[in-house]
């Protein structure tokens, strides 16, 4: 009965899907479902009122990651607003030519230190404009500059949901995420519209940091809170109950703004050949999660690597001068940096601005994934294939 009702509801989506999706990321047909065996069901879909996100009919799925956009610097000067004009141009250029199936905005949307209480969320409206025009599904993580005197992660999330209809960003359940770290959630991606179980889970974590809003302005811990560890476990168990074991039927990809602490030890071992891409930011001086006292993110790091199976990569921004991917040997997991996308935020001449693209060639959860950096003008570099052999 439940399944019949859902089928009906999804038929209701058809017209919306056709008009809302201008890429082929959600297929409108077929809606015919094969009879479902066992315990597989749709009860765990966190987006019952939104279109199901799917691989394209040709079997591919492409993500484009904008990171560290840093909107709103020095609104009282000319150069601050001009940076944002440049960043919007980059976003429109990239979205127009890459035509991704999903966009991730991986933290530091705003340089919150410079924003005013009365209008800080207007910057979210500015960032959402190119995404809304492209009609591409997306979601955001939030960074240390998004928690400041006049802005917080939850304010940005709420505003995004108000102004961007294609947003899949969610706040996690109450009690998960710790102080000022609400942005812990996952998004299911299906191989095709009629599937009841997703083939890929995109996980998003809130690495917090920055300062609590006025009048307190106290530093916020800059690591994923230990409460997220239990939540990862319980969500993974719920997924297993609903859809069966991940085994060879479900993969994952993870995004968080600040790199996990363990990545600091990886940097000295990378080589230009194995780990191509800019390597100009030294981790350890406030630029990794939990840099002051190693180990605070251990519960999260352990849970992530214990309960999330078939994890293709963990993807972070925060360090504007880094672009590489590398294997973290103790957990045997791949980590990748984003590409600094915003003209705001620190940088150096020659670093350039762009995005990270991630391309699934097939829905097969065990297949390799291709990823590379794309610069604004179209140049690409640091292309690597993420598989069991990568980075060993
Ligand atoms: C916000 O208000 C400040 C002060 O009035 C102004 O300088 C700035 O341009 C405004 N920002 C936006 C995004 O409207
Ligand atoms: C926060 O906003 C208020 C009101 O617009 C402004 O007076 C104050 O300077 C802002 N705080 C910071 C740290 O920019």
Automatic annotation (TrEMBL):
<dbReference type="GO" id="GO:0016788">
    <property type="term" value="F:hydrolase activity, acting on ester bonds"/>
</dbReference>
<keyword id="KW-0732">Signal</keyword>
<dbReference type="InterPro" id="IPR004843">
    <property type="entry name" value="Calcineurin-like_PHP"/>
</dbReference>
<protein>
    <recommendedName>
        <fullName>Calcineurin-like phosphoesterase domain-containing protein</fullName>
    </recommendedName>
</protein>
<dbReference type="Pfam" id="PF00149">
    <property type="entry name" value="Metallophos"/>
</dbReference>
<dbReference type="GO" id="GO:0005737">
    <property type="term" value="C:cytoplasm"/>
</dbReference>
<feature type="domain" description="Calcineurin-like phosphoesterase">
    <location>
        <begin position="62"/>
        <end position="321"/>
    </location>
</feature>
<dbReference type="InterPro" id="IPR029052">
    <property type="entry name" value="Metallo-depent_PP-like"/>
</dbReference>
<feature type="signal peptide">
    <location>
        <begin position="1"/>
        <end position="28"/>
    </location>
</feature>
């Amino acid at each position: 009965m439940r399944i019949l009702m859902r089928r009906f509801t999804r038929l209701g989506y058809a017209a919306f899907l056709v008009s809302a999706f201008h890429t082929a990321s959600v297929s409108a047909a077929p809606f015919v479902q094969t009879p479902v065996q066992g315990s597989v069901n749709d009860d765990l879909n966190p987006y019952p009122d939104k279109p199901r996100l799917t691989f394209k009919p040709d079997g591919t799925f492409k993500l484009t990651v904008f990171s560290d956009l840093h909107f709103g610097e020095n609104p009282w000067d000319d150069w601050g607003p001009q940076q944002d004009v440049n960043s919007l141009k980059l976003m429109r250029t990239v979205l127009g030519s890459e035509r991704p199936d999903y966009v991730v905005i991986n933290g530091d949307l705003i340089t919150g230190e410079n924003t005013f209480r009365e209008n800080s969320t207007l910057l979210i409206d500015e960032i959402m404009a190119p995404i809304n025009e492209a009609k591409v599904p997306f979601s955001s993580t939030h960074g240390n500059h998004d928690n400041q005197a006049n802005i917080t992660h939850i304010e940005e999330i709420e505003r995004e949901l108000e102004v961007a209809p294609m947003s899949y960003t969610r706040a996690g359940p109450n009690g998960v995420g710790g102080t000022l770290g609400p942005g812990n959630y996952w998004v299911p991606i299906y191989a095709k519209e009629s599937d009841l179980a997703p083939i890929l889970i995109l996980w998003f974590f809130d690495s917090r940091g920055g300062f609590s809003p006025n009048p307190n302005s106290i530093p916020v811990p800059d690591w994923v809170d230990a409460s997220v560890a239990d939540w990862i476990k319980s969500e993974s168990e719920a997924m297993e109950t609903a859809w069966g074991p991940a085994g060879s039927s479900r993969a994952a990809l993870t995004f968080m703004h600040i790199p996990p602490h363990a990545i600091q030890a990886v940097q000295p071992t990378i080589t230009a050949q194995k780990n191509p891409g800019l390597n100009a930011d030294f981790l350890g001086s406030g630029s990794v999660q939990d840099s002051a006292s190693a180990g605070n993110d251990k519960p999260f790091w352990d849970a992530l690597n214990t309960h999330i199976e078939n994890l293709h990569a963990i993807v972070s921004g925060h360090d504007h001068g880094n672009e590489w991917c590398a294997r973290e040997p103790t957990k045997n997991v791949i980590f990748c940096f984003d590409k600094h996308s915003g003209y705001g935020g620190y940088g150096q001449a020659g670093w350039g601005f762009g995005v990270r693209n991630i391309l699934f060639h097939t829905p097969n959860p065990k297949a390799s994934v291709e990823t590379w950096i794309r610069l604004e003008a179209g140049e690409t570099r640091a292309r690597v294939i993420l598989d069991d052999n990568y980075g060993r």
